[in-house]
Specification:
α1 runs antiparallel to α2. The mean pLDDT is 90. The chain has one domain: Aminopeptidase. The strands form two sheets. The protein has a four-stranded antiparallel beta sheet, sandwiched between helices. Strands 6-1-7 form a three-stranded antiparallel beta sheet. β3 and β4 form a beta hairpin. The chain is of the alpha+beta class. The longest helix has 15 residues.
Length: 170
Amino acid sequence: MMLSVWVQYSWDLARLPAEVPKLASRYTVEAATLEDKDLLQAAISRSVSMEPTWSDDMAARVKLADEIINIAFPAGEAAFVAIKHGARIIAASAIREAADKVSNLPLGVCVLNEYRCRGLGTFLLYESLRRLRERGLDTARLVTKKGLPSDRYLYPKFGSTRTVLTAVPA
């Protein structure tokens, strides 16, 4: 088993661009509700399981998703932004507004494999950051594994700062 290297992205939400990325009209974006829990679980699990870079940390990642969806979300400690194609959730991100959190986007941006490379991740990241700013945060943070496609192509957007962590995130 290879030791994972983790990185943290930070965004100054006051510097979030005013121009909103485009979302095709066939998709809708909304705050997920508790009735969406099963759909969220399925979409996030599929998104993570289709990314081979997560393989060494898959059990921990699935456990974190379960805890956020089944404990933090119903308790009001996390919210979800979801992109739907019809009734199907095809992309989602959890947001936690507590300023003291290591990660305000604890699951990152999850997009089903068959919907990637369509701008959905960029739109969802922007929308998640915008909602955190709307809730009064000045800075948003996200921790992810080094080397993921999202580490290379998605999270550097919108003026983020990237820091390699010296310890495994808690």
